[in-house]
Structures are given as C-alpha cells and as structure tokens.
Amino acid sequence: MSNPLPWKGGPKIDEQWLAAVDRLLIEGMRLGPTAKRNAVNKVLERVPEWTRGDCWRRLRQLRRLPEFAAKATADQPEAQPVPAQPRRRGATRGWTTEDKDHLLDWTGYESAKRIAQRLGRSEEAVRFHMGALGMSAKVTDGWSLRSLRKELRISWKRLRFLIGTGQLRVRDSRVTAASFAAWFESQRAGLDAGAEERFAAAREKGEEGYTWERAAAILGVEVERVQSLICAGSLRVLDPFVTDRQFEEFCKKHGSEINLALLDRDTARWLVDDYGVPKPTAVEPTPRSRKHIQTVRACKCGKKIAGNAYFRHVKSCEIANRAPAPRPPNGGARRPWT
After folding, report:
1. Domain membership flag for residue 235
2. Which residues fall within 8 angstroms of residue 90, CB to CB, at 6 or more apart?
C-alpha cells in the first residue's frame, strides 16, 4: 500500500517497510487490543531500529486516518431493519456513521462509561457495540507514571504536584481508602471531634476510594488541604494511569510545565508536533541542580539512564557489580618449549 502518512519522531525507515508496518498495525487495531499488541511485537522483530514507543507513536498517527475508520466499519454487516412492534419502552436510537467513527476514535483511550456520556447512550449499549466490533472496553493506550517520568525526565515529586493540583488528570483520581485510613490514624489527635464519626460511617460502606470533596468533608477541611496531601505523597490516588487523551490535554493546556531542554531532540519534536506542546520562545538556561539530567549513561546491563539515577542503578545492578573473571598467569600467553 502507498504510505498515506509521513513518519515523524523516530528512526528513519524505508517507505516500503513503513507501508508494511502500517498494514500490520492497522490490522492489529481493527482486531482488538490483543492483536494490536501482537502486531507491535511483530514490528519490533522485523524492524529492530524501532522501539516500543515508536510503535505506539505510529499507532496514534494511524488512528486519525479516516480510511481506518471506514475499513473497520466496512467489515461489519449492515443492520437489517426490524419491523416495528409494540414495546413498553421507547424505540432505540440507531448507530449513525458519525457515532461509529467517534466510538473507534475513543475506544482504548477513554472508559466505556465516559464514551457513553459523550455519545448520550447507556454504558451497556456502548459495551455491546464494542463487542460487536471485536474491540475491548479496556483503556490500554496511555502512560504509567513510571514511563511518564522517564519520558519527560521529571521527578516523582513533580508528578505528584501536577496530579494534586489537577493539571494532570489520571484515570481515577479518588483517594485510596487505605492511604486515607493510614493518614487519619496518624493525625487523629489534630482533627475535630466530628471527624471520628464521619470516618467511621464512611468506612462501614466499604468504599475503595473517596473523591477529593468527600475526603475533605470527612476530615472537615478544605479541598485544597486534600490536594496538598496528594502533592506531598501522604494520600495516594486510586488509579494513577494517564490515558493518551489526558496526556494530550495536559500538553495543550500545561505544556509549559515540560522542560524541552532536558529532552532529546526527537522526543521534544514529537511532543511539539503530535501533542501540541508550545515551543519555547527563548531558550531558558537549565538550572544547575538539573543539568545532570541532560547526561545519559549506558550500564553494562544495557539500560540507558539519564542523570544521577545512573549511579543508584549501578550500585544495585548485578551485571555491573559482577566480578571479572580472573586472568590466567602471563596474560594467558603460552610458555615456550624448553
């Protein structure tokens, strides 16, 4: 197939190979998450220059093609008209081509509940239609906090601050019941008298997490206090996974929080071109305390680590600390015959 999209932000690849890679990835997306992961594994075997991140970047570019949506919907049989019969409930609303396009665009990026709200349908109807198209309702495309920290080269403390202030949305921002109970027990003496009863009543319900507003109401404090506890790491969110849509929203609204000077050139260009991170108007000097992040070192185990974290890794790496084999006497040279 002729390649419809140029390849951005990764190792150079021949157009014929890129067309073959696109066919594999599009077929994987059409068949569902498992087939998509298998397609990525095949691409990594056939194109060793690519990383798994390169494959996900290409998948994201291909999802925007109208040809993919048309191909996915064309494989499904057209719904046959059903004769009208007297029913107790109102007639169901049919799925238009626009609804199907939205469903294909949002599946894998947002939950079935959120998609149902955006389409004005029930969650059961959305899940049923996903199953009819051979797609999973699970959100698979996105970022864990570990991969996000490594990609953007920011600290855990900074990530917690972005989540706690609401700049970076996560899949489930509710406070976990376990971390809330642990903090409550440690600060019980400093809380008001009614907090004990409110906490006991909330605990009896067996909820796995509390919204920020509910947690603040139980403690008898402002919501900002709960946010500061999340920033400090005293309270944890229920599901810190960041979907691709949420990451794109963060880049467009708060892209200035990302220091592009600390990233390699390809990653910085990829964030600017694909996610809308604003280009810096002037090159700001990197703080002295963060200059070490610009240095990337390779360990003997094969991992490439940026900054001073390399030295912590080397101390615990078995391969790096493995003692070298003893050298034979005379440097291994044979003794001459006498």
Report:
1. yes
2. none
pLDDT, residue 62, reads 79
Residue 210, classified by CB atoms within 10 Å of its CB into exposed (0-12), middle (13-18) or buried (19+), is buried
Asked if residue 160 and residue 128 are part of one domain, the reply reads: no
For 17-75, how does the pLDDT look when each residue is reduced to its tens digit (9 = 90+)? 777 788 888 887 777 777 787 888 888 887 777 777 777 777 777 777 776 555 544 55
73, 100 Cβ separation under 8 angstroms? yes
Mean pLDDT of 78-92: 52
> What is the pLDDT averaged over residues 167-183?
92
What is the share, in percent, of the chain residues with pLDDT greater than 70? 76
Number of H helices, E strands in the chain: 16, 7
Q: Within this chain, do residues 200 and 230 fall inside the same structural domain, yes or no? A: yes
Contact 293, 262 (CB under 8 A): yes
* Last-in-domain residue among 27, 55, 73: 73
What pTM does this model have? 0.52
- Give phi and psi for 209, each to the nearest 5: -165, 165
Q: Please report whether residue 273 resides in a domain.
A: no
Residues spanned by the domain of 110: 100-132
CA-closest candidate to residue 160, choices 233, 95, 91: 233
How many structural domains are present in the chain?
A: 4
Q: Given 112, 132, 152, which residue is the final one in a domain?
A: 132
Whether residue 116 sits in one domain with residue 53? no
Greatest C-alpha distance within the chain: 110
* Cβ contact 278:255 at 8 Å: yes
pLDDT digits (tens, 9 = 90+) for 231-251: 999 999 998 988 888 888 999
Is residue 332 domain-resident? no
Task: Give dist(CA 179, CA 186) in Å, integer.
Answer: 11
Q: What gap in Å lies between CA 257 and CA 86, rounded to an integer?
A: 58
Query: Do both 224 and 307 map to the same domain?
Result: no
Mean pLDDT for the stretch of residues 274-280 = 82
Instruction: To the nearest 10°, report the CA torsion of 64, 65, 70, 75.
Output: -90
CA quadruple 130, 241, 42, 153: dihedral sign: positive
Q: Residue 281 domain-assigned?
A: no
